[in-house]
Every structure is written in structure tokens, then in C-alpha cells.
Amino acid sequence: MKFDKLKHDKSSIRNKLRKISTINSAVILLLCWLLLSSTSLLFIKNYEKRNLELIGSTLSTTLTAATVFADSYDARNKIERLGNEGMYASAKLVTRDQMVLVQWIAQREQTGWFSRLLREWIYHKPLNVDILHADAAVGTLILEGTVTGAVSFLQYSFMILSVGMLCVLIISLMLSEFLHRGIIASLRTITSSIHYVIHSGDFSLRIPGGPIREFQLFSDDLNSLLMEMQSLKASLMRDNRSLAAKALSDPLTGLANRSAFSARLTQRLDQPDNHERFALLFLDGDRFKSINDNWGHAAGDEVLKAIGSRLLSLASEQDVVARLGGDEFAMLVSSRTSEAQLQQLMQGIHNALREHILITDNMPVTTSVTIGYAWSQPGDTVESILERADMNMYKNKRKNRA
């Protein structure tokens, strides 16, 4: 559809090439027409002049006796006979004594502007032929040439020449259109491919080569550019995924961070068709500050990573383990739906954290966490369920201190 519109667009390369071909063919044919017309005119001029000279020479010979004896009747008959056959436009026979024996003018000689200009161009002046008798001039025959035959010949010649040139122009345009198809097809392939890439963002497309060397080089350059853009797009997508993962994960433990955990919790609470309850566990370290104070922050980081790893090993695939910050952890538990199952999980957490954690110089330390939990309830919000779990955690922490 797009290229159908381009066919009628005056600025399209198809119409530009057509215009160039038309102008080029028209100029060449016009020059050929002018050359052939000029050649025809020169040929006609020479032919008519030589023909008039031949007629004058022949007629002067036949008029010798009539001129010598001043026989105007015989002279007129001979002059009129050839004149009526269209050999000349006018004839005048004058004796040596300047007596006009015969003066004849054609009745049907053409008088239009073209005939007049043509006659003036071919015949600058009347043809004077001496009538000789015994090697002496006894009179003069004055002839004015006719252009009736020349006009008819030129009219038909110009008409045939114009029609022929028009046919040649049409054939030339059709041939140019046929020869331009390869160029148009190559450009159409390139432009349609670029159009598809721009609108789809699919840089894996490759432009096929063509028989024209320049277009082949252009296609190769475009394919190289598409390959670079495809590689750049893939790199950007990897970087974006990496940044997205980093934005939603804790850089130390690799667990989900607070933002990711809140998003998952919101998603779970916003599922109206999910009637299965879940539990939210809030975990807070008991002796983390003393570990930092006694063995340094590097040791504290090792402890945090070990806690995250052990919590993750106890969670199921549908559960979410997150580090909220510092020594605070949380678990969104969907795999346990009963109180007994949840208590079993919390006991497993306490048992796992009682195992030694190796820190600097393979120094073993132990740690523990206080857990508070809350079951989901209808109408819960993120804030409400977090608040219940947090309150239960602090309640348990005060109980453990007592």
C-alpha cells in the first residue's frame, strides 16, 4: 500500500527517473527531428533548383525557333504545356529587342505564408536562361520556380517524421521503464527493509543483495549497521536485565531486597481469586551487633550471607526470601498453609542457624534470630500484615530476653 502511494508521488524516485527519461528522450528526438528536417529542406532546395535549371535548359532549346521568328502562339503553347504540369510558377519569354512574346503565370500556385517563405528561401531570384541561335542570344527565358510539390513533400515528411519520433519516444519510455525496474526493485527492497526495522525494532533482518554493484555495497553497509545495532540492542537488554535484577536484589546476599519483597507481597494481596492464605515471617538477628564489634564488618557480612543462604535452602520455589536491611530478614511463605507446617518451618530455621558459621581465619561463630509471623487475612494491606508480623516479632524478642 505504501509503495502504491509512492507511484503517484511526484517526488518518488520512480517519477524522477521517468521524468529524466522523458526529458532526455524528448531532447534527443527533438535534435534528431531538427537535423532530419534541416537535411530534408536542404535536399529539397538543391533538388528544386537543379530541376528548374534542367527545365529551363530543355525549354529554351524548344523555344529557339519561336523566338527567332517571334511566333508567340507556338511559344505560349509550349510554355503553357509545361507550366500546367506544375514545372514552374511563371514564365516570361523576351526577345533580344526586349519584346515580350509570352508571359504566363500559374493559376493555382500556393500563396500561404509557408509557401511564400519556402519560395523565397529556395529561389532567391528568377532563373534567366539565354535562348541561343548560331551561338548568339536571340532572347531570354525567365522562370520562377514552383513550391507546390515541395510543400506537399515537406508536409508529408514532417508528419511522418513527427509520428515516427512520437512512436520512438513512446518505445523509449517503455524501454526505460522496463530497464528501471531493477533499480526500483532494489530500492524498494532496501526501503521496505529499513521501514520494517524502524517500526518493528527487529534488527535481525538482513537486506538481500542485488545485481547493481552500488546497491550491493549499500546493502552490505546497511547489514553491517544492522548487525552492530542488533549487538548493541542485545547488550542494552542484558544491561537492563542486570540493572533490574540489581535494583530488586540485595547486593550482599543476593536475596530480594525490601522493594522487591513489598512488590511480591502487594501482588499476592491483590489477587482476589486466590483464597489460600499465606504467612509472613519477620526475622531479626539477636547478636549481630556484637559480631560486628568483636570481629569486624567483614565477619558480619559473612554471617549475613550465611543466614540468607540457609533461609533460602529451607524455602520452597513459591516462597520469597528477602533481606530488608541490616540483620532484618523476611519470608513470604505460600508453601505451608497450616499452623503445624509453619511451626515446623520456624523450628527448621532455628536449627539451621545454630550451626557454626565460619568467618575470618575459619573462626566459627553462631547466631540466632527472633521470628514473628502473621497469617494473611481478608482485607489485608501490606502495612497491616507487616505491622502484625513486626509486633509478634518484638513480642517474642521481649519474651526471649525475659
TrEMBL record:
Q: Name one GO biological process term.
A: signal transduction
| Alphabetic keyword roster | Membrane, Transmembrane, Transmembrane helix
Q: Which reaction does it catalyse?
A: 2 GTP = 3',3'-c-di-GMP + 2 diphosphate
Record field: transmembrane = 21-44, 153-175
| Alphabetical list of SMART domains matching this protein | GGDEF (SM00267)
**Source species, domain of life:** Bacteria
Where is coiled-coil annotated?
Answer: none
The keyword DNA repair is assigned to this record: no
Pfam families named among the record's database cross-references: CHASE8, GGDEF
Domain HAMP residues, every copy:
181-234
Biological pathway:
Purine metabolism; 3',5'-cyclic di-GMP biosynthesis
> Tell me, what is one Gene Ontology molecular-function annotation carried by this entry?
diguanylate cyclase activity
State the CDD domains in the record: GGDEF
Q: Which InterPro entries match?
A: CHASE8 (IPR033417), Diguanylate_Cyclase (IPR050469), GGDEF_dom (IPR000160), HAMP_dom (IPR003660), Nucleotide_cyclase (IPR029787), Rev_trsase/Diguanyl_cyclase (IPR043128)
The record's GO CC annotations read: membrane
Residues in domain GGDEF? 276-402
Matching Gene3D superfamilies: 3.30.70.270
- Supply the EC number(s): 2.7.7.65
Protein name (Swiss-Prot/TrEMBL): diguanylate cyclase
